[in-house]
Design goal:
The chain contains 5 helices and 3 strands, in the order ααβααββα. By secondary structure, the protein is mostly helical. It has a domain of 79 residues: Arc Repressor Mutant, subunit A (Orthogonal Bundle). Strand 2 and strand 3 form a beta hairpin. It is elongated.
Length: 119
C-alpha cells in the first residue's frame, strides 16, 4: 500500500509543474517524439527539458527509448492508473457524502414545509 501511495505522490508531484503538464499534453496521441521536438515550444534550455523529462520518467509517466544519440519519448498511460484509482475512490466517497447531504436537506425542507402549512 505504501508503494502505491508513493506512486500516486510521484505522479501528482510530476504533474504539479505546468511545463511537465504541457509536455504530457504534447505527447498525448503522438506516439514517440524526439526530445528536441518536445523542447521546441518552450523557452527553457534543453538541459532543463531533460530534467523535466527525468521527473516524468521517475514518476513512470513517460518511456524513453534511445537509438544512438537520439532520445525518443512516449507517454505511458499506465503511469496514471494508480492516480486514477485514487481519484475514483475519492469520488465514490464524495458522491456518497453528497447523496447523504442531499437526503438531509430534502428531509429538512419537508419538515420546514410541514411547519409552514400548520401555521
Amino acid at each position: 500500500m505504501v508503494n502505491n501511495k508513493n506512486k500516486v505522490s510521484d505522479v501528482f508531484a510530476a504533474l504539479a509543474d505546468p511545463t511537465r503538464r504541457r509536455i504530457m499534453e504534447r505527447l498525448t496521441g503522438r506516439g514517440e517524439s524526439r526530445v528536441t521536438a518536445l523542447a521546441r515550444p518552450f523557452r527553457i534550455s534543453l538541459p532543463a527539458i531533460s530534467r523535466h523529462l527525468q521527473v516524468l520518467e521517475n514518476a513512470r509517466l513517460i518511456l524513453r527509448r534511445r537509438t544512438g544519440r537520439l532520445h525518443l519519448i512516449r507517454a505511458r498511460a499506465a503511469g496514471l492508473k494508480e492516480a486514477q484509482k485514487w481519484f475514483s475512490r475519492c469520488a465514490a466517497v464524495w458522491d456518497e457524502r453528497f447523496d447523504a447531504l442531499e437526503n438531509l436537506l430534502t428531509q429538512e425542507t419537508r419538515k420546514q414545509n410541514r411547519k409552514e402549512r400548520r401555521k
